[in-house]
Methyltransferase
Amino acid sequence: MARPNSADGRTRTSIQILIVAGLCLFFYALGAWQRSGFGKGDSIALAITNSGADCDVASNLNFETHHGGESETSGESEKAKVFEPCNSHFTDYTPCQDQKRAMTFPRENMNYRERHCPPEGEKLHCLIPAPKGYVTPFPWPKSRDYVPYANAPYKALTVEKAIQNWIQYEGSVFRFPGGGTQFPQGADKYIDQLASVIPIDNGTVRTALDTGCGVASWGAYLWSRKVIAMSFAPRDSHEAQVQFALERGVPAVIGVLGTIKMPYPSRSFDMAHCSRCLIQWGSNDGMYLKEVDRVLRPGGYWILSGPPINWRTNYKAWQRPKEELQEEQRKIEEVASLLCWEKKYEKGEIAIWQKRINAESCRARQDDSRATFCKSAEDNDVWYKKMEACVTPYPDVNDSDEVAGGELKPFPQRLYAVPPRIVSGSISGVSVETYQEDSNKWKRHVNAYKKMNKLLDAGRYRNIMDMNARLGGFAAAIESPKLWTMNVVPTIADKSTLGVIYERGLIGIYHDWCEAFSTYPRTYDLIHANGVFSLYNDKCDAEDILLEMDRILRPEGAVIIRDEVDVLIKVKKIVGGMRWDTKMMDHEDGPLVPEKILVAVKQYWVAGGNSTSSH
């Protein structure tokens, strides 16, 4: 049968169209899998992808006329706006951490390294290109140790950190031996040392924060111990360190401890870590250490390795005056004492403190004139809020043995245990019953997704984002050692639920989707957007949100957008000009449900090249 053009393609029966569309979506993904080197031997998939089968049929399905939305016409006014590629020098563009813009802001307290987003008139309305030679990253766990050179072609760290075993350049790949400034013998041995003090291996410690993470080898090696680390570092002279982390398949964002609060709720992390992170912990009245205390769970641990710990032995090697290092450690110890942290360990260049489980075990600081307490109502109101040198109070307890805020079960039990914030009723309108119903609903949704895309369980998608995570049901249902999810709670959401997500043993961040996300281009394999466009209707332009999704999505990455049908029709029209292959799907409960699903695959294309579905 001759291949139809757009005019006579409707001569196929609807059954034929659905069969071909389903096969094409499935085999297209398999073909992409093989082209990345992941599924070697899948010659059938590649043959079908490259054959004359009409795989454009998915994007030609005339869904609108089936569901009473705005019907398509052939008029010029109805054609999708075509988004052109940006100039190739925007390949690694990070809108809110642009280097040129950063230099116009004050250096004091790292203000210039914080988020500074472009005004409306300076936003790009083009597609960020991948660099020439870009390939799909290696699957986990190989990606932990190897990154294709073409994906992040920056050799500076291989020279600057050569003796510290961070990263090595070997032919067409970078190799990450697992070393770091403070663990040249490897992250595993370093973590073993920490595990002699901290219960890392039994599920008690699940969520971790790595400040000034470098290429995130600490987080990468914690993964095998079922600990998930949120790593951050600024976009600075250590070119592409966060980009390397994400190419390795390790959770990371561009960030810095500066003048505004970290975008995480209070009592989020079981453990926080600084390995020679160059943060002045004792400065500004201990403000940065107090901010770590805010996000650290009662009973959580703080690890500091490197200067000034063991300064008496190392001051010559560090080429710093003894008196300066001594004063630096004195300030840290003073702030830790004010926070009522207990020092559990100091050996070599590593010191570990533990936060008390409640205020009852630290009554003395209530009368300490140096302790200025934050207003408790503000402890989760952090987006662009100025950091203050105040102490975040503990939630109240009934006795001295109770963990403030509630005790968590070890992971993985905590994934579906009812989070303490739900039990206590602190999330308005969310009861234990509604939480459990939400969890069951997302199990059904994810099962339906897996039927749409057979690769969700295959390790094809490592870095996943949920743009409107709510209670974390999607991430919990899809949870696997093969992947991780960045759970985003929009700052305009009606409920601040990110604390619940952390209590489930998941990670996430606050963000406003009217602005660019704090990451490099091409850092997510799959993006899930549930109700995002309805939420932001009349708040900002859907076009800007979709262009940002395209920026952070890898070539041949997948998108699942769940929303009301009328919203999705508008979204589908915009993405028609964005080099995405799309297909509209019914809700798993049938065509009468007004909520629909738009699935998409971003085409493979690179700077200076043409759009194509194959390499």
About this structure: The two ends are 27 Å apart (CA to CA).
